Amino acid sequence: MTCGSKYDSGNCVADILRDIADAQTDLVSDCTTSCEQSIADLLGEASPADNFDTVPVILYCKGNCKPFKGYGARRPNLGFVFSSFYFRVKSVDEDNCAVLELLREPGDESNPHDPVDQDTSDLEVTGVCITVDLDCFCHVTCLPAINALD
Asked: Superkingdom of this entry's organism (predicted)?
């Protein structure tokens, strides 16, 4: 069963994230998943004036079905490791490995314990990327498209 519009790898999470990555790099995507509205907003189909550039996603680990939390450190403060439940898809390769950029609230130095601990209204990119195996995830939640690159 295919979950994405263009891909049928046998991994729904990977297929949806490929669709998002394509849309975020201005490629045409005709997604037919629950993420359809976020992708349509990103592509400017609903309101072209919004200039959205990111579909924030939450991933859920297989087995425990809990939200995945990524960790990273920014230069020059490499001693401070922060975490986030929200990600921007950078790329997905043919082996279902994805590069995800951690998203954070501006100026927030806390490490959330739950996705609802983070305010998603003004998420921004961090420049911190992680690589994940998408075969480890069973679910993806797409948040409304935002402008995270400014």
From this structure: Bacteria
- Specify whether the CB–CB gap between 52 and 44 falls below 8 A: yes
Give the helix/strand (H/E) hosting 141.
strand 137-142
How many whole angstroms separate alpha carbon 58 and alpha carbon 17? 11
Residue extents of the structural domains in the chain: 12-142
Residue with tokens 């998603």: 120
Q: Please give the order of strands across the beta sheet that includes 97-104.
A: 124-133, 97-104, 87-92, 57-61, 137-142
Contact (CB, 8 A) for 147 and 55: no
Tally of residues, the chain: 150
Q: Which stretch, 3-12, 73-82, 105-114, 121-130, has highest mean pLDDT?
A: 121-130
Cα–Cα distance measured from residue 91 to residue 125, given in angstroms and rounded to the nearest whole number: 15
Count of CB atoms within 10 A of residue 16's CB? 27
Report pTM. Answer: 0.75
| Residue showing tokens 């797409």 | 142
- CA R_g for the chain: 15
